[in-house]
Design brief:
alpha/beta; Pyruvate-ferredoxin Oxidoreductase, domain 3; Rossmann fold; 20 helices; 37% helix; magnesium ion binding
């Protein structure tokens, strides 16, 4: 029987099950298939913090959502068109977000009385009519998987571990995904265990064949490739892009890179990836704690390497003293904070943007430093290069603020050519730079570049450049310890001026205002870029003009930011915190921005931001009407 193939322009699919059901792997493989097909895509992994969360419970549900389309998209989507639920817990946790008419694929084997009771179902939803609003496909997926792999002699428990591949095969058929990449992956991943390898391959093919032959699936779907700028593309996650960006930045600066890091969710993948790249001059050190990681990185910077450390919010608190030391030493150090929900341990696998004020002020004394933030998973590459550029050019620690949503999410990335990457020039001090009163030549470690205010970078062991560093205040120029009041004032203001000077190398703020008559500006930073962009598109389609701008540089701000803010009647600032950027903007520019804040551990949905923008536009129109009647 030849089945009908329908063309659709976009689809949102969510795989959901126990954290041990392999939903992240299934989602990742579907993503790779989709990337190789040429669709634009965006993903949202969502999983518990526990290594093995309680099976069959609501807190133990793990999910992976992918939004793919034949056109440019910005978010993983608000609600799934297709939900694959491997057990009652996955169904109950995700059903409230499933729109009426959506496709539901369920493993009926798991809907036992015990599993239903565990999550609070009084009756089986597959039998009581409560799912009638959805296109429900219920079949014994676990049993079908066991039947498909029985020839390989696995126990039923081991055989059931392949059911994620069965589900992946079915959904891959349903949306006409290419399968070669998944088959190659399975052969490589399980090469040392032929029985497991063959079982996963058999399960995947059985799922595909089930879709092809089952009468329940009379239609499959196709999403055409998206039109993209010419070039070579690959799918990339934020943490992987960040690691590649750090390597690229170090290579452009012709510096060896030293990473001192302590594993912490969601930053650990950067350490894992960088450890693979010794051939690019990368040295990785897995420290015994956060403090050791950052101090080792700072020591490497003193020795002439690009010092890098990676962490999340709790680690930032521990690193604060050494980051302050880096401010005083004026050495290049890149601190990557992959933010997560706090405070304290908080929710390690959930996302948040709540470390901005910590990055700005979380050190004793006046300890200013530049802050940059990527806006998408692929943009982590460019943001990392920018952090390296600022750090080595201005001799300063730089904080790069990513977050869990960017770190684990993925999207297509056009691999840049080397010539497209910015030049990063490093000039080490090689000879004395000061003539004393008696005519001798000496090396002054705090004699500054007149444009950048950067002090010279002298590699220890260079003849004639012996100098002392430390946390005690140094005298301007010669760098001896100084307790002079006027000198301290000068050094504090000079360090601030050096950070302010970064703004001269920052491009003017790019504002997307298609009609040039918008009265509302939506301003964001970090990972809010996608939801804000999708919401602005939706609002414009309804005839409401709105402008969008996004900040990469959070300290210092772009030089024209104040002018941009004052050119709009209202400025809406969505943040995954309680208004940290809003507070900074109000204090700096005396503009009463409108905050829109959520701290749920999840990214914004485009729908809720569409509503917020529409409501603000309505209130502005009402004010204008009332004013005209006066």
């Amino acid at each position: 029987m030849t089945k009908q193939v329908l063309q659709v322009d976009r689809v949102i699919i969510r795989f959901a099950g126990d954290s041990g059901d392999g939903m992240q792997l299934a989602g990742d493989r579907f993503t790779q298939e989709t990337a190789s097909f040429g669709n634009d895509l965006s993903t949202l992994p969502n999983f518990p913090a526990e290594i093995r969360a309680p099976a069959g419970t609501l807190p133990g549900v793990s999910s992976f959502q992918i939004h793919f389309a034949d056109h440019d998209i910005l978010t993983p989507g608000d609600a799934p068109d297709v939900l694959v639920a491997m057990n009652p817990a996955a169904l109950k946790a995700n059903l409230p977000e499933l729109p009426r008419g959506a496709t539901l694929i369920v493993d009926s084997d798991e809907f036992t009385k015990r599993n239903l009771t565990r999550v609070g179902y009084d009756a089986n939803p597959l039998e009581d009519g409560s799912l009638d609003a959805y296109q429900t496909h219920s079949f014994p997926l676990t049993s079908a998987t066991a039947e498909a792999v029985k020839e390989f002699g696995l126990t039923r428990k081991d055989a059931s571990r392949s059911k994620n591949m069965y589900a992946l095969g079915l959904v891959s058929w349903l949306y006409n995904r290419p399968t070669d990449s998944t088959l190659s992956f399975l052969h490589a991943k399980f090469a040392r265990n032929p029985a497991v390898r063959d079982a996963n391959v058999a399960a995947f093919r059985a799922g595909w064949n089930f879709g092809e032959t089952a009468e329940a699936f009379a239609v499959s779907y196709q999403v055409k490739p998206a039109e993209m700028k010419s070039g070579h593309y690959r799918n990339i996650s934020g943490n992987l892009a960040l690691a590649y960006g750090l390597i690229a930045g170090a290579r452009r600066a012709d510096l060896p890179m030293f990473l001192g890091s302590y594993p912490i969710t969601p930053a650990s993948d950067v350490l894992h990836e960088l450890s693979k790249h010794k051939r690019f001059g990368v040295t990785t050190f897995q420290a015994e704690d956060e403090i050791a990681g950052v101090t080792a990185a700072l020591g490497a910077a003193f020795g002439g390497s690009l010092g890098v450390t990676t962490t999340s919010g709790p680690g930032m608190a521990l690193k604060a003293e050494t980051i302050g030391l880096a401010v005083a030493l004026e050495l290049p150090l890149v601190v990557c904070d992959i933010q997560r929900a706090g405070p304290s341990t908080g929710m390690p696998t959930k996302t948040e943007q709540a470390d901005l004020l910590q990055s700005m002020y979380g050190r004793n004394g006046e300890a200013p430093l530049p802050i940059v933030a990527p806006q998408s998973p692929a943009d982590c590459f460019d943001a990392a290069i920018e952090a390296v550029r600022i750090a080595v050019t201005y001799r300063t620690p730089v904080i790069l603020l990513s977050d869990g949503y960017l770190a684990n999410g993925s999207e297509p990335w056009r691999i840049p050519k080397t010539a497209e990457l910015p030049e990063i020039r490093v000039d080490f001090a090689t000879e004395p730079n000061h003539q004393t009163e008696n005519g001798d030549r000496a090396f002054w470690p705090y004699k500054r570049d007149p444009e950048t205010l950067a002090r010279p970078w002298a590699v220890p062991g260079t003849p004639g450049l012996e100098h002392r560093v430390g946390g005690l205040e140094k005298a301007d120029g010669h760098g001896n310890i100084s307790y002079d009041a006027a000198n301290h004032e000068l050094m504090v203001r000079t360090r601030q001026a050096k950070v302010d000077a970064v703004a001269r190398s920052v491009a003017p703020l790019e504002v997307d205002d298609p009609t040039s008559d918008a009265r509302i500006l939506v301003l964001g930073w970090g990972s809010t870029y996608g939801p804000i962009g999708a919401a602005c598109r939706a609002v414009r389609e309804h005839g409401i003009p709105v402008a969008q701008a996004h900040l990469r540089h959070l300290n210092p701000f772009p030089p024209d930011l104040g002018e941009v803010l004052r050119s709009y009647d209202r400025v809406l600032v969505p943040e995954m915190n309680l208004g940290q950027l809003s507070m900074l903007l109000r204090a700096r520019y005396l503009v009463d921005v409108v905050s829109y804040n959520r701290v749920r551990g999840l990214p914004f949905s485009a729908g809720e931001l569409t509503g917020a923008i529409t409501e603000l536009a309505g209130s502005l129109d009402l004010e204008q009407t009332e004013e005209s009647h006066r």
